[in-house]
Specification:
The protein is of the alpha+beta class. 19% of the residues lie in helices and 31% in strands. A six-stranded mixed beta sheet has the order 1-2-10-4-5-7, with no helix packed on it. Strands 3, 6, 8, 9 and 11 form a five-stranded mixed beta sheet that branches. Strands 12, 13, 16 and 19 form a four-stranded mixed beta sheet that branches.
Length: 423
């Protein structure tokens, strides 16, 4: 009997423990990571009218958008006996405008959020400020119209492609993509999308001009933590003055550099110095030149002001150091920066390649380099009182030799322009 009672007590003690362990194990269940969907772009209701067409940036996805409902304030498109290749009527429309900064073949990709949506679209060549009035009165015809039936095999995708053969695709067809458009520099095109589903969802649209080019990958890097960051990237064709690209808060970005073209690249980020670089097709002959790692310098004490270009010097027989003319463009950028931030005082630190045989001479020559830079900046109107100079110390020169030996290459360091005080 006693033995039975002991066994019963042991059983009663073990059962709650086992239950508690089971509960603990259940708590260890892992959950699937939540994948954040991209935020939808909220289009203004006026984008449903021709007069307020949304500008599209080439080579960049626009969307996904939130759907617009209805045809806006004006029913711009009405089919008549003379104008057949247009919508029978507007349902839920969005208007876009594409400016062409170079020649090529214009292609368009339209991706509905729901494959059940039925997107038709038209493309017009833009003429002038009276264009929308002409569209409303059916005095201008589309050069492309794609109004095919929904095709479930391609999940509602439509657009213009290099493989497309038809300029006008009627509603009775299941062909989803029309023929590309040969475009010229300076031309503009209007694209109008119409979703026949009143309860439909939004879309993503992308326009691209296919042409010969060399790619340039722009990679913004925070120079403080040496990690990738985002920035505002703007590209301008210096010949036509046309803006090729304008992105906000963008990371690694691919741009097209065309033959016989020169571009100015502007990269900005709040709290950091602006970056500017001029690039041409011939600058990208080697694949290694196709990556532009932009080190953005934060505006704070001790930070380096970026020198966008190379500095060259010549040692004269009398012992003086002369700044060569090919250095002027890089220093002109420094002049712009100092004019933009007049509250900054800087220290110019001369740097020079050294073999360690005569550290004193290297120190003196590096100081002369710094003085030559200062002389140029002062000649461009920068107050002399806002600039101090010094050469590389013995310790810095020895560290430079050590780094040079570790890398097993000859280093030619740039001079540095550091923020000394912020008023």
């Amino acid at each position: 009997m006693k033995k039975y009672i002991v066994l019963l007590l042991v059983f009663c003690l073990l059962v709650p423990c086992a239950y508690a362990q089971t509960k603990k194990k259940k708590k260890k269940k892992t959950t699937q990571p939540v994948i954040e969907k991209p935020a939808e772009i909220e289009l203004p209701q006026r984008a449903a009218d021709c007069l307020f067409a949304v500008p599209l940036m080439l080579d960049s996805n626009f969307g996904p958008t939130e759907p617009l409902h209805g045809f806006g304030f004006v029913n711009d498109i009405k089919r008549d006996a003379q104008t057949k290749n247009v919508f029978e009527k507007e349902h839920n429309t969005v208007w876009y405008k594409i400016d062409c900064p170079y020649d090529g073949k214009l292609i368009i990709d339209i991706t509905p959020k729901s494959e059940l949506d039925d997107y038709d679209f038209l493309v017009y060549q833009y003429t002038d400020q009276y264009f929308c009035n002409r569209v409303e009165k059916n005095r201008v015809k589309p050069i492309r119209s794609v109004m095919s039936l929904p095709n479930g095999t391609v999940k509602g995708l439509t657009g213009l492609s290099l493989k497309g053969t038809l300029a006008n695709i009627p509603k009775t067809s299941d062909v989803t993509h029309g023929r590309y458009i040969d475009v010229k520099t300076g031309e503009s095109y209007i694209v109008v999308l119409d979703n026949l589903q009143d309860d439909g969802l939004g879309h993503t649209i992308r326009a691209e001009i296919v042409t010969q080019y060399r790619p340039l990958y722009i990679n913004p890097i925070d120079s403080v933590n040496k990690q990738r960051t985002t920035a505002n990237i703007r590209i301008k064709d210096i010949t036509t003055e046309m803006e090729v690209l304008n992105l906000t808060d963008a990371g690694n970005t691919k741009i097209k550099i065309l033959p016989n073209k020169v571009y100015d690249i502007f990269i900005t980020k709040s709290g950091y110095f602006d970056y500017q670089r001029r690039v041409s097709y011939d600058d990208l002959i080697n694949p290694k030149d196709s990556v532009l790692s932009v080190k953005l310098s934060e505006i704070k004490l001790g930070a380096n002001i970026p020198i966008n270009g190379n500095l060259s010097f010549d040692n004269q027989e009398d012992g003086s150091v002369v700044l060569l003319k090919e250095s002027y463009p890089a220093l002109d950028g420094i002049v712009k920066t100092l004019n933009a931030y007049p509250n900054i005082n800087v220290e110019i630190i001369g740097r020079i390649a050294t073999d360690g045989l005569d550290l004193r001479a290297d120190n003196e020559n590096s100081k002369k380099r710094a003085d030559a830079i200062k002389e140029y900046l002062v000649s461009k109107g920068i107050p002399e009182t806002s600039i101090t100079t010094r050469g590389s110390s013995n310790k810095e020169l020895l560290k430079q030799i050590d780094n040079q030996n570790k890398a097993n290459i000859t280093l030619f360091p740039e001079c540095e322009i550091k923020i000394k005080t912020l008023k």
